[in-house]
Amino acid sequence: MKSTRSWTKFFVFSLLFLIPSVTFADLTGRWNCNDGGQYYVRQLGKEVFWYGEKSANNPSWSNVASGYVDGNSIILRWADVPKGMHMQEGILILQIDNPNRFHSVKKTGGFGGSIWERP
User: Fold this and answer.
1) Which domain holds residue 45?
2) What whole-number distance in Å separates Cα of residue 43 and Cα of residue 25?
3) Partners of residue 101 on adjacent β-strands
4) Could you report the per-residue pLDDT of 63-113, keeping only the tens digit for each?
């Protein structure tokens, strides 16, 4: 029974992260948000990572996030980092509208932004 469970976990992990996925768009690049910040996004298959900040020289906030693409959705866990003054964290669920725009569907932890667009 234990070996079957281990095999199942390996199979699910492989499907989610190792097999390249067909996604709506490649999200890698710089994005502007309606919270006044800039976000630097990297997509590797289904995995998504970002660094966001209000200002490069004197940010009132800065955060990192990691998660995955699921169809037209991006599911992320985010956390503020000590470059800024805030120390919050939470979950974001974003909807990909087109290759150059996505918006928030659900936000926790006091996240401010809701619309991201490529410049």
Assistant:
1) 22-117
2) 10
3) 98, 117
4) 999 999 999 999 999 999 999 888 999 999 999 999 999 999 999 999 999
